[in-house]
Amino acid sequence: MIRKSPMKQKNRQTISGADFEQYFQPHNLDKALEIKAEYEDQIEVAAGTTDLLVANYEKLHQIKNWLDLDKLDELRKIEILENELHIGAMVTHLQLMKSDWIKENFAVLAAAAEDVGSPQIRSRGTIGGNICTSSPAGDLLAPLLSYQASFKLQSAEAERIVGAEKFFTGPKRNLMEADELLTEIIIPLTENEREGAWVKVGRRKALVISTLTLSVVLEFEAEQIVKAGVAMGSVAPTPIRLGEVEEMMLGNTLAELDYKKLGQEVKVRINPIDDLRGTKEYREDAAADVMIRALNEIERKRG
Amino acid sequence: MQITFTVNGEERELEVTPYTRLLDLLREDLGLTGVKEGCGKGECGACTVIMNGELTASCLVPAPQADQAEILTVEGLGTRDDLHPIQESFVEAGAVQCGYCIPGMILAGKRLLDQNPEPTEKEVRYGLSGNICRCTGYAKIIDAVMLAADKLAVEGSDSSD
Fold first, then answer.
1. Above 0.90 for ipTM, yes or no?
2. A7 vs B: CB within 8 A
3. Fewest beta carbons less than 10 Å away: which of A9, A197, A238, B67?
4. What is the SS3 assignment for A80?
5. Does the beta-carbon distance from B41 to A57 stay under 8 Å?
């Protein structure tokens, strides 16, 4: 029963029969996929709702139908299957940063999760939401690119695995079909020694949308770099992986790298814009600097 | 739709529209006005509650996601005559000016001290990083949480005697 309050706000929505039809909170994935297949792009998927309710509050768009994945506990697991790490799409940032396993093996991802928003946001916001929102500033996206993650997209009829690099197609755009849901994030494990660094540049320490982010993950055999993942956020229409810069590092030891030159190579390969959070020029200069900082950090951690 | 949840130790059953925010449920339906609305966008922390043990911005939780949850608001912490040690510390440290952010600050302090009874100043700042205060400049709020840690430590050692 709702207790009527005399101070009830004017804009408070009333209960109507239609509301019940338009909010779905399925308890298993099959049901969720069935609903998505039926409503396709006429339904808004709700995960941690830390972006969705802000958009709703600002009335950026009207949401008619909601598909709330909150009760899908099957998507809240972090597990290792064969040589891969599987992270359920509804795993929260807090779960990521608290998982000892992720901290040890995917330290850059854990560090990025720790830098998302605030404690209040990290306890609700999900990795799947961060990916599907596909903001170029999404904090987890650069690390996922550097670890060469792929995403499992499921529909009622089929499933496919798409590499993170192919997934993002523009600001807040990705290649998901209207009947698909992101269910899992898959990251390959490695036998090699791995070291990485995470840098987030923003105007404040907490609750800040990134001015730019950088994630560097290097794999070593003896001292030689055998695999590299360098990715950035907020410097192009999508989070980007800098394959050419990675290649310049391969086969070298850290001591053989010219950090300053690599910083310049990063700078010329990004395509930032002027916005509230920083100018194009600032972002280009900062990108070169943070690359040097990241390499110094990796050197220190290995030293 | 119907949801059931536990608020400050009491089980409640409510009829809600799915689009109601947890914040509105607590303030309007349950009269728990210690939960404040600041920005309405999860940035200020005034609407903070502890939901299933974690700090949560209640303005960003649609009512159906609060179903089956356990929620603590500042009203569940202490009463005017019997303040919780964290509340006492805020009074003693002079950490309250306009007061609007304080329920959220106190809950963030509680969550921190539950997990980390002896925080450093840096850890306190990180623990409160989702809560904005426009009056105090934070110094006395940080002092209050540190003071509360001491109080709770003394209390803890008393009860174990």
1. yes
2. yes
3. A9
4. strand
5. yes
For B142, the 3-state DSSP assignment is helix
Domain boundary among A68, A85, A105: A68
A218, exposed or middle or buried, with CB in 10 Å at 0-12, 13-18, 19+?
buried
**A205 in Cβ contact with A106 (< 8 Å):** no
Domain boundary among B17, B50, B76: B76
The structure's pTM equals 0.93
Interface touch A118/B129, C-beta < 8 Å: yes
Residues of B in contact with A9 (CB under 8 A): 24, 28
**Tokens 């490695």 sit at which residue?**
A190
Let me know if residue A9 belongs to a domain.
Answer: no
- Tell me, yes or no, if B2 comes closer than 8 A to chain A by beta carbon: no
Which structural domain range is residue A206 located in?
A: 193-302
**Residue A5 forms part of a structural domain:** no
CATH number for A34: 3.30.43
B2 beta partners: B15
With an 8 Å Cβ cutoff, are A54 and B64 in contact?
no
Q: Which residues contact A198 (CB under 8 A, 6 or more apart)?
A: A107, A108, A111, A112, A115, A143, A213, A214, A215, A294
Neighbours of B89 (CB within 10 A): 24
Domain count, chain A: 3
Cβ atoms of A12 and B28 within 8 Å: the answer is yes
- pLDDT tens digits along A212-258: 999 999 999 999 999 999 999 999 999 999 999 999 999 999 999 99
- What percent of chain A is helix, strand and coil (3-state, nearest 5)? 35, 25, 40
Q: How many CB atoms lie within 10 A of CB B133?
A: 23
